[in-house]
Amino acid sequence: MAVKRYSKKEPLVFIWIIIPYIIFMNVLIFGTCSVRDWADFARGFGVSALYFFAIYGLFGSVAVLVQRRFPKASDLFLRIRIMLPVFYVMNIGAVYGAYYMYDRWNPLSCPVLTDHLWWTILYGCIMSTVITFINEGLANWEQWKESLSEGEKLQNAYRRSKLLGLKGQINPHFLFNCFNTLSGLIHEDEEAAEQFLDDMTHVHRYLLQSDEEFLVPLREELRFARAYLSLTETRFGKAIHSTIAIREDQLTRLIPPLSLHVILENIIYTNALDRDNPLQILMKTDDKECLVIRHSVHEKTIVRHLDVDEGLDNLIMKYRLLHAEGIRLAESNGSREIVLPLFTAQIHGQ
Fold first, then answer.
1. Which residues contact 64 (CB under 8 A, 6 or more apart)?
2. 57: buried, middle or exposed (CB in 10 Å: 19+, 13-18, 0-12)?
3. Which has the closest alpha carbon to 246: 291, 186, 296?
4. Cβ neighbour number for residue 183 with a 10 Å cutoff
5. Does residue 7 sit in helix, strand or coil?
6. Cα angle, residue 109 at apex, residues 108 and 111 outer, rounded to 5°
7. Element of type H or E holding 105
8. Cβ contacts of residue 51 below 8 Å, gap of 6+?
9. How many CB atoms sit inside 10 A of residue 227's CB?
10. What are the structural domain ranges in the chain?
11. Around Cβ 263, how many Cβ atoms within 10 Å?
């Protein structure tokens, strides 16, 4: 089982600090006598190394426990305020333990300097403070680099989301179907044709907009969803029936842009459409401030749009990068439910 470390550089910090730390500890405990003779120096260093290695392991375990409890970068000073007092108490115990060990069994020909006890404790506390700040600095540096990497991944996920949206909508097949439907409406119902054209304009404007925000108000997404569903229902008639029941107080909540496009496209192109058994789509919010999309499941033998699953996978990854509660998928009794957590604060790129 891998040992949990406070930072990836912790072993390097340990190696660079522990050697001078042990030498100076022995000087405080035994005086300069501990470095005058090579045999005494080697014996003293070896015994102290084994003892303080074990002590350092205890200190490291405490640090990791505190880090797990308060993992955020903003918790830096809170972690330090918790760890340092604990380390100071542990240092007192560790130094008393060292003096007791050497008093009972002294591997050197030098006497133990008991009058240096509190100077030794002070030195141990100072070194604990130095090591704590070094490890915290390295850990936060690593978190900062990881956040840059995650920010790049998130930006790539959003660019890919837009690309998938364009591939799904601005293509000859989709445009041909829309224009074919529009052509028929012009001869049959000019008012319906005008509404269809307005919906097409809104859908494509939303897909092409250059807004780089990672989150948009739910109100905007629903406006797009209504236009998209209106186009679809006009094309397929009674084969699709949709209902949107969103509480007014939830409309200001935030959601990744094009989320509903990905989900609606996945629903429409992976289910068979039948006027006698229409595809039912319901959008609502629940008590946990999540957007719920529920639809009936009509098995389709052949899925023409292979990108629809890729788009949903991309959306799931996007939520993971946003450090949010993941998207929940559930299917039972001929229906499928997709739950998207809603956000309360905007997230900006790195």
1. 4, 5, 6
2. exposed
3. 291
4. 11
5. coil
6. 90
7. none
8. 97, 98, 101
9. 21
10. 10-146, 170-341
11. 23
CA 348 – CA 156 distance, rounded (Å): 14
pLDDT tens, 130-143?
888 887 777 776 66
Query: 280 in helix, strand or coil?
Result: strand
Minimal CA–CA distance to 98: which of 120, 72, 130, 74? 120
Please write the tens of the pLDDT for every residue from 206-259. 776 645 567 889 999 999 899 888 888 888 888 899 999 898 888 999 998 888
Q: How far apart are the first and last CA of the chain?
A: 35
pLDDT in tens, 156-171: 665 665 555 445 444 5
The rounded distance, in Å, linking the Cα atoms of 98 and 92 is 10
Q: Evaluate if pTM is beyond 0.70.
A: no
**Mean pLDDT, the chain, integer:** 78
* Helix/strand/coil for 308: helix
Residue the block writes with tokens 């809170």: 78
pLDDT at 3: 38
Q: Phi and psi for 251 in degrees, rounded to 5?
A: -70, -20
Q: For domain 170-341, which CATH number applies: 3.40.1010.10, 3.30.565.10, 1.10.150.20, 3.90.780.10?
A: 3.30.565.10
Q: How far apart are CA 30 and CA 161, in angstroms?
A: 67
